[in-house]
Amino acid sequence: MASVCHSPGRSKECDSRRPVRYLVALKRARPPETKSGESVGKKKVQTSGVWGDGRIGRGGGSERATLGLARVGSRAALNFAFAFLRRAWRSGEDADLCTELLQESLEALETLPEATLFDESTVSSVWLDVVERSQKFLTTVVLSQVPGGTGSSSVTKVPLGDRHMALSLLLHLALQRATLSTLLTIITLLLQLWDSGRNQVDNRVSSHGTSAPLLPVLHRFGAIPLLKSPPSPVWDENTPMEVNPTECLLRYLELPEDEDISVDLEQAAVILLCHLDRLAAPHTPPLHSPHGRPTQGQEVLSWGWLAWSAASSPSRPLNYCDSLAELGIKSIACAERCLLILTQKGSLYSLYYNSETQCPQPVLGQPEEEIVKIATHPEGKHYLALTANGQVYSWGNGDGGRLGHGDSSSREEPTLIQELQGKTVASIACGSTYSAAITTQGELYTWGRGNYGRLGHGSSDDHSTPTLVSALKGERVLDVACGSGDAQTLAVTDSGSVYSWGDGDYGKLGRGGSDGSKVPKLIDKLQGQEICRVFCGAQFSLALSKSGALFTWGKGDNHRLGHNCEEHVRYPRQVKTLAGKKVVEVGVGCMHVVILTEDGEVYVWGRNDQAQLGDSPHAAVPEPSLLSALQGKSIIGIACGPSQTFAWSTKMSGLCPTNALCC
Q1: Does an H or E element contain 131, and which?
Q2: Are residues 230 and 281 in contact, defined by beta-carbon separation less than 8 angstroms?
Q3: pLDDT exceeding 90 applies to what percent of the chain?
Q4: Are 571 and 527 in contact (CB under 8 A)?
Q5: Nearest to 446 by CA among 419, 421, 424
Q6: What is the DSSP letter of 10?
Q7: Residue 8: helix, strand or coil by DSSP?
């Protein structure tokens, strides 16, 4: 090298290699670390300098001047090196010097230990500036975005070998910085290069440019040891074994020993992500212990048909919803195709049942006010949200005026229902095609499809804005439930009286016959039972008393009523199996029911064709059956979709279900 550097014809090469020495200088030129004031011999070692933590503004005047000169010198050297490379690539001259320069830089980086630049407080701002500028330049190289000559809009064609070496340099620099953002950026770059390298010509896909010789850096990532040993697994024959796909891939991954072999860039990105997961795993607190119990925070479980969960079966009845638990669930409302999530912070998220991944998405355009309650229907396509100040927002399908905005238009984002402004709403409910709201004064408003008189206004007309149910004027309504297709509506007042109206098939109005009604009428059989909550399923009805007794009536097939028979019941009948237990919450799907008792026990019955009732092997469960898989999990909330069920718990004791009304 000395002979080359002293050759007059190679002076440019010597200058262009100066930035490379910065890579070695970090290792060799940094002063030894000492405690402040510690002496070595008779001299005090200076702990801040150009390569230490001597940033501009920290040291004295001479130190700042030295640092300033170092920055000017480094930038000048970098600019010269970059200009030399661009000129050489553009002209085709000295191409071998470009390759040699990049190769020496790569070799210098390979001599450094990993994460040298992680703690930026101990690294000079000059060095960080060098790294930042180098990364930007190398990125333009690998993306083939090196500009041409002055005034030219074209780009310089960089040899493929040099672009591969520049990519390796970027990967090693990312390994030196060792921050999550830097590593994810380089992984994204790999995917971008892989995607841009796949050119489709004449219906044929060319994979030219989708691979590079990255085995050395992949081997280096694989050799990084864990700083903390992962917890040893404790096996329980009663708990299904959970397999970590990342661990499986890395365990059985065999990389070629020949480091000159090119690797698919997409596969390289996956391997790097797996190593990130491997390195992070010991430092990530698990949501569940080896026995499936929550180790901290909340636990959310699901069963039934969900594309993003493992199939429910008698051997594995429950699925853990870790991404939902991380949000902090306050309540869940299930629609026909998705679930709506209200977090403890008052934010809204949604997640489709057929989504391939368990990734809830924030509801766009949600109001700035805190949301305190949400509503939808297992057969519905529209949603309601109630804010802390009593305002109601609606969005989704608008057919029949169910959103309450005076038209039948759909809304993509939550929109304030203007007709309810000036009224403080305390509760909301959704049917499949209509809606309801109760004010703090106990007034009931309904709107949407009016088939069978389900709105209670004396006709079957649709109403596109909230309209007062005048037949209940003088009563203080506490709760309302809305049904589905051939719908019925139920309401309970502060005196415990229950009213029903709408379609009367199968006796679901609870008055002994199949006659419908277009205005609210009293259910005499429930008088004196002190009912506080009401619910509607598909062609059946439910009522909950203050003492926790549950009554059901209506269509009986698929054992949806829980009376151990499939006959239709035309008057409210108490569910005898639950006698002696205080029911505090009820979840109703299309044809299945889930209840939560005061003791935290969960019982299920009804249709089970999609394993929505958990561990039962039967297509239907005729009467309330204890869901043993949830015992000991401190369940505080439940929700049902058309063929799904959700339950969530908390480690905190002494809490009532968060979405239960006080009876």
Answers
A1: helix 125-142
A2: yes
A3: 54
A4: no
A5: 419
A6: G
A7: helix
Q: Using an 8 Å Cβ cutoff, are 14 and 1 in contact?
A: no
The answer to whether 146 and 159 have CB atoms below 8 angstroms apart is: no
Distance CA 297, CA 542 (A): 33
Mean pLDDT of 598-609: 94
Q: Which residues lie across from 342 on neighbouring strands?
A: 331, 348
pLDDT in tens, 569-596: 999 999 999 999 999 999 999 999 999 9
Model confidence at 615, in pLDDT bands (50, 70, 90)? confident
Region 254-265 average pLDDT: 89
Neighbours of 208 (CB within 10 A): 9
Instruction: Round to whole Å and give the CA distance between 73 and 15.
Output: 12
- Letter for the amino acid at 492? V
Each domain of the chain, given as residue ranges in start order, spans: 299-649
The counts of H helices and E strands in the chain are 12, 34
For residue 235, the model assigns a pLDDT of 53
Helix (H) or strand (E) holding 386: strand 382-387
- Per-residue pLDDT band for 7 (boundaries 50, 70, 90) equals very low
One-letter amino acid for residue 433 of the chain: T
pLDDT on residue 152: 63
Residue 319, strand partner residues: 302
pLDDT value at position 622? 95
| SS3 at position 94 | coil
CA 85 vs CA 63, 99, 151, 391: distances in Å: 33, 9, 18, 64
> Which among 401, 445, 456, 447 has a CA at the least distance from the CA of 423?
445
What digits encode the pLDDT tens for the residues 25-72?
Answer: 333 334 444 444 343 333 333 333 433 443 434 445 666 677 677 778
Structure tokens at 577: 């199996």
pLDDT at 418 (0 to 100): 97
**54: which residues sit within 8 A by CB, 6+ positions away?**
48, 63, 67, 124
8 A C-beta contact, residue 547 and residue 532: no
Query: Residue 299: which of 647, 659, 612 has the closest Cα?
Result: 647
Burial of 421 per CB tally in 10 Å (0-12, 13-18, 19+): exposed
371 CB-near residues (< 8 Å, 6+ apart): 342, 346, 347, 348, 385, 386, 387, 388
Query: CA–CA separation, 67 vs 75, rounded Å?
Result: 12
CA distance 256 to 268: 13
Give Cα 230 distance to the centre of its chain: 25
**Angstrom distance (rounded) from CA 549 to CA 558:** 22
* Residue found under tokens 């924030």: 362
Distance from C-alpha of 106 to C-alpha of 99, rounded to nearest angstrom? 11
Tell me the fold of 299-649. Answer: Methylamine Dehydrogenase; Chain H (2.130.10)
Mean per-residue pLDDT, 289-307: 70
Q: What integer pLDDT is reported at residue 4 of this predicted model?
A: 32
Residues 462/400, Cβ–Cβ less than 8 Å:
yes
Segment holding 383, helix H or strand E: strand 382-387
The SS3 assignment for 120 reads helix
Give the pLDDT confidence score for residue 640 in this predicted structure. 96
Burial, 204: exposed, middle or buried (Cβ in 10 Å; 0-12, 13-18, 19+)?
exposed
Question: If we measure between CA atoms, which residue out of 286, 285, 218, 290 comes closest to residue 249?
Answer: 218
* Residue-level pLDDT at 633: 87
Closest CA to 631 of 615, 643, 619, 617: 615
pLDDT higher than threshold 70 for residue 502: yes
Taking the C-alpha atoms of residue 200 and residue 612, their distance in angstroms, rounded to an integer, is: 46
